[in-house]
Amino acid sequence: MSGPLPELDPIVHGQLRLALLSLLANLDSADFKWLREKTASTDGNLGANLAKLEEAKYIAVTRKFIAKKPSSQYRITSKGRKALTGYIAALKTLLGDSL
Amino acid sequence: MEQPGPAEVLTRLRLFEEMTAAGRRATERWGWSFLLWGVGPLIAMLWEARGPYPALAWPVILVLCVVMNGVVLKLRGRRGHAVPMSMRSVGAVWTSTGIAVLILAVATVWSGASDFRFLYVALFALAAVAHTASCVILKWFPQALTALAWWCAALAACFVPAARLQTLAAAALLAGNVGFGAWLTYKERSRPA
Description:
The complex is a heterodimer.
Chain A: H1 10-13, H2 15-24, E1 27-31, H3 32-39, H4 43-55, E2 59-66, E3 69-76, H5 78-98
Chain B: H1 6-25, H2 31-50, H3 57-79, E1 82-84, H4 86-111, H5 116-138, H6 141-156, H7 165-189
Helix pairs in contact in B: 2-3, 2-7, 4-5, 5-6, 6-7
C-alpha cells in the first residue's frame, strides 16, 4: 500500500445523501417531488437527509409558494460539489488499494 | 469512520454513476411552447385579415399566449421537476429575444413607422439568432434547421414585394415554430418520463 487510507466524508457517505448530491451535481436545481421520485425514498427520510446536507452547506434551498403550496428548490453548492468530488476520489483510491 | 469493504465501495460508485446519469437525462419539455408561439401569431394574422375588430387581434392573442404560457409553467412547477444546467443559458437567450421582439413591435406601432419591411427582417433575424444560440448550447441539430428557416425568411424579407411579407411571416411561423414544435412534442411524448 502506498500511503494512509483516505478519509471518507461521513455526510456524503450516507447512501441517500450520496444519491442526492450525485443527482444535483448535474442539474441547475430540482424540487422535492422530483428528488423523491428519482431516489424512491419516503418524504420523512428524504427530508431528514436533505436537512443534513443543508446543515453541512452542501446544498442550498430556495423555498417559495406555487399555487399556495410550499415548494422547495434544491441546488448543490460549490462546497457540496467539492465534497462529492473528494469522496469519489477517495472511493477510487480505496478500490485501487483493495485490488 | 470505519473504512468500507470493496463490495460497498463498488456499490457506492455504481450509485454515483446511476444518479449522475439520471441527473444528466433530466430534460425540460418545450414542444408546447414552440407550438403556442407558432399557432398564436398565425391566428392573430388570420383574425387581423378576416375577422371582426382587426385592431384587437394582436393584443388579445398575445395576452392569451402570455397567460397560457404562465399557466403551463405554474402547473409544471406543481408536478415536480428538475432544471437541467443548460436551461439557464437557453432561458436567457429566449427571454432577451422575447423582450427585444416586444420592444421592437411596440415601438414600431407606437411611432407610426410606415416601413414594416425593416420590422419583419428584424423579427425574423431575432428568431434566427435565438434558435441558433439555443441549438449551439444544446448541441441539437434539428433546431439548426429551424434556425436556417428563420435566417432564410430574414433574407427573403429584404427582397419579396411588401404585399407578400405577411405570407412570408406565415410560412416562417409554420416551418420555424409550428413544424419544429409539432416534431418536438411528438419526440417528447415518445420519450420515457
